[in-house]
């Protein structure tokens, strides 16, 4: 079964002009009507680091979750953020950004990889106590622009450490949009076969013309969980290419359906979401 994760948080967080809380909530409420498996809707991180997400708790209070089958995921960067997020029973998943790059881990969470792994373990314990699940995003999963060590074998070492912590979901993240179809297939093939108890997701960034081939490559490797954002909004500024953004959800849907996957989405609500996205992102 395909799990399709829509990521309004990732689409919004880098926008310098603050998006009104009511507009955020209206957009996420619309996305809740579509039938995505999960919405990566907000984050509990320092408002100094990500000012756009400072109103996540207020947005959550405005969401209409009663008729939606979608689950909610919030990103956290430390134990305090996890504790804040776990105060809200509506949140199903906590996402943590763990990097195979020492440089990026320091830049992203102001911690070493060793300390970040301790944080992952602490959050895992908190989630188990609260009946929640943690999703670890393994960033720089397909390449490293900082000159830090990188290899498929290094990814396997990180996955092994996370498997020892009983992690159920790991999302391999192409933070800077450098993954090739061959590497995507290789990484997912190796990991899905070595760790069948773990669900591996793809959080890829891409130029628009490469989205379809990257989805197909991940499918070939055994991936059945995909993150995206409508129109590909958002992405990592470190990619240094304004055309590299999130994987456009509507393109992923078209690709997945062309391969015979039944996604059970409400297409009329998806069309409304696409219209509203243009307004929210002023595009």
TrEMBL record:
Keywords: Lyase, Metal-binding. Residues 1-271 form the Pyruvate carboxyltransferase domain. The keyword Metal-binding applies. It comes from Algoriphagus aquaeductus. Gene3D superfamilies: Aldolase class I. Belongs to the HMG-CoA lyase family. CDD domains: DRE_TIM_HMGL. GO terms for biological process: ketone body biosynthetic process; L-leucine catabolic process. This is Hydroxymethylglutaryl-CoA lyase. One of its GO terms (molecular function) is metal ion binding. InterPro entries: Aldolase_TIM, HMGL, PYR_CT.
């Amino acid at each position: 079964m395909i799990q399709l994760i829509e990521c309004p948080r990732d689409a919004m967080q880098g926008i310098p002009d603050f998006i009104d809380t009511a507009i955020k909530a209206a957009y996420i409420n619309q996305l809740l009507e579509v039938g995505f498996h999960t919405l990566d809707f907000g984050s509990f991180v320092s408002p100094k680091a990500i000012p756009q997400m400072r109103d996540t708790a207020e947005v959550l209070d405005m969401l209409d979750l009663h008729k939606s089958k979608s689950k909610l995921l919030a990103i956290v960067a430390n134990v305090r953020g996890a504790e804040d997020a776990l105060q809200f029973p509506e949140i199903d998943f906590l996402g943590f950004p763990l990097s195979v790059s020492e440089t990026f881990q320091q830049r992203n969470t102001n911690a070493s990889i060793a300390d970040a792994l301790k944080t992952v373990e602490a959050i895992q314990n908190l989630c188990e106590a609260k009946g929640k699940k943690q999703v670890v995003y393994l960033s720089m999963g397909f390449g490293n622009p900082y000159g830090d060590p990188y290899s498929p074998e290094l990814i396997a070492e990180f996955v092994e450490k996370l498997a020892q912590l009983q992690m159920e979901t790991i999302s391999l993240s192409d933070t800077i949009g450098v993954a090739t179809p061959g590497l995507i297939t290789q990484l997912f093939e190796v990991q899905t076969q070595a760790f069948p108890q773990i669900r591996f997701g793809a959080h890829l960034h891409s130029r628009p013309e490469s989205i379809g081939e990257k989805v197909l490559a991940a499918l070939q490797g055994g991936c059945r969980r995909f993150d995206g954002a409508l129109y590909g909004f958002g992405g990592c500024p470190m990619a240094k290419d304004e055309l590299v953004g999130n994987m456009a959800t509507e393109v992923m849907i078209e690709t997945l359906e062309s391969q015979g996957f039944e996604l059970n989405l409400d297409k009329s609500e998806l069309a409304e979401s696409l219209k509203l996205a243009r307004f929210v992102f002023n595009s």
